[in-house]
Structures
1.
Amino acid sequence: MSDEPQKSYQSDTTPQSQGTQPAAAKKVSGMAIAGLVLGIIGVIFSFIPIINNAAFVLGILGLIFGIVGIRASRADGPKSGRGLSIAAVVLCVLAMVITLVMQQAASNAIDEATSSVSASLSSETSDTSASDTSNTSDSSNTSDSSDASSASDSTLDTEGDLGDYHLKIVSATSAGADYNGKDTVMVTYEWTNNSDEATSFATAFMPYVYQNGVSLDVAIYTQSPAGYDPQSELSQVQPGSSSTVTVAYTLDDSSPVQVEVEGLALYHGPKVTHTFQLS
């Protein structure tokens, strides 16, 4: 009598204990975690100029990882972490957008800085010209012959001596488009250092290029045209040696350009100038 109830109790409880066993938990998707980390790093780097190029690449990689993580963490998928995957996608897209915005802002800042420097140089040229005109006017009251001589020596066509240096304006030719798609002109100079110490073209001269009476901005290329060396004006030249220098400028249209070169600092002698027709 006592054995039968015991057997019945055991047969009833065995299925219940088996039915309450918990299902195995899914592991978090490694792709989701990797995408989230890349997204965070990308957002941080996207605010830093130059480095934000890497942020854009990290954003692309993180976006791919995040999409893979979303697919793997579906309800019937082998992994969990769908929320992490979605956050990774959002952060990576945000990193790429911020990078593009920051690069555009940096490009605009460079354009404004270049325009400001050109305007400053043009203003200094105007002040120097006005000062020279005033001095010439004063000297004309004492000697007409001296005024005529000064006027004839104030401008040298194509080449001449500017203080301790000899300069020749060789050519001004079209040189393709700059980084912003605008046409450019490349001006070539040849000069000789007749001083007693080594110096560079940028230290010895003040070159200006005008079109329609307005000074042109220095061109910036993504890929330099043939024959253009942006570092040539900074190269040091020993006494008695000569060098060729190329400087590029952004054009406003296809009208002729006038090249003028003066000496730096306290130099008040003649200037070398020439007008070129663009080919």
2.
Amino acid sequence: MFDAKEQRSSTLHPIEETSIIEEQFVQARYREEELTSSYGSHTLAFFGLAPENLHFLSPDGAGLVNYRLTSNVAVVLGDPVCAPQDVERVMHSFLDFCAEHKWHVAFYQTYPQYLNVYRDLKMHAFKMGEEAMLNPQTFTLKGSALANVRTSCRRAEREGVTIQWYEGVPPTEVIQQLEKLSNAWLKHKASASETGFSVGRLDELSTVAERADTIAARSRPSASSQSSAKKIVPRFLTAVALTSTGAPCAFMTFTPVYSSSTNADDSSESTGWGWTLDIMRRTP
């Protein structure tokens, strides 16, 4: 026999149930950001956190797959966000999840080191292009191949063009100036429009910069932390080109690329972090 009082005591009030769901969402979001800051070395990993995307957390919480559902196709943004040794297991979980929903799966912009894993899972690779990687510490404009770039740089210097950098959310007045510049650029480019998914949107600049700031703040070691490892967490960057009169004439944004986590016993500084060039706009 089931006591009515016991039944009442085990029934959640709608407000309590909503609170639990919200708490679960916050915990899942925190884990997604934690995985991204630890293993988001793919140039599209940060884009995957956009709220318009869907986020699959593996049952054990070891990995994250960011995707968007189009008809019955789950289009995944980059490789799974997890430790390298967990990639195959996380992919297995995600593919099983998609099979349950009778979805097809496509991974967009995967890295070469995981191609064998995809093939082992009966997936096929199609090369669409290559991604340029530059090391700012060694990059140079020397050489005949970059002669035109050097010429453009010298002309900009003669005309008094300077670059103003903003880390995090730019000031409101700067964002307003960039919006005017962007609108003029989009109007001039008849076929151009804001897209999203694997590239940013100017109307989301503040939100995206705040998201990067949140991840950076959570990734800082606490004062009580016993780890001596120094982890560098990049923030969102905006570069604005100014004419000699101080008016914006072009801008670029850079989204964070996170380094893979160092071994817990390794006190050396982690490497591999950087930025992905995202939005580029200029006066027509």
